Amino acid sequence: GDVHVALPRAPGSPVRNVRSSTFEATGEPGKDLTAARFQDQVEYREEAIEGGAPRFVRSSLLRITFADTAVTAAVFSGGVQFGEQGLQASGAEAHYDPTNGTLRLSGIDVGGAPHVADEQIEVDADIIDVALAGRQMSASGSVTTLLYAGASGRLPGLLQQGEPVNVSADTLDYQGGAGTAVYAGDATLWQGATAIRADQIRIDRASANLTASGNARSTLVLDLGEAVGRAAGIRYDDDARTIIYDTPAAAIGAAGAAAPA
To answer: Model-level pTM?
Structure first.
């Protein structure tokens, strides 16, 4: 009933507090606690250290393992809601490694599939791994995303900066700090009537360049009208404002002329 537990603080680790309806803990003779279980209305809070951000997690169940006084792993289950400044995540289950600062989301429940969002991207997938420092993510299985221009990145100039861009694929490798997103396996990008499909699509938010490779196809809305193209690869260079169709290429406009770049 309204349990409040202050977890032991190991050197260099943050203060951690957990509230729940029930709490059970186990240990070994002559040692500290080795495991703890919190159930029902779980609320986990972790204070900020060394310039980091505080974190919180809500769930139905939490299982924690200890080594000496250090928390080595925390597994949250049932309607998991994770948050820190600028980042929100959810899923049926979340494996949190506080030592390495990683989070793995998996499973589907009433709250839906794993979901992660910050100011530049929203990700839904079967499994999402997040490295919280640097906002690196890898996702697999029915990946769908929304990309935003954000305060620290740009979208390729082929796209409208004020509107989100949809991208889906089998896998995603996202490097938030570097500003790159690589989609592989039946990758599809679309925004309004503009669409690009390929085996792989790479977006560089720092340079606003885009590369589609492997059976690439495009429908682009340009100043001169809609243009349809197909090639082994399609590259967009934002500095030069050019679209390059790699050999073998066939870029065909609506009237049968070469698609304008």
So the answer is: 0.89
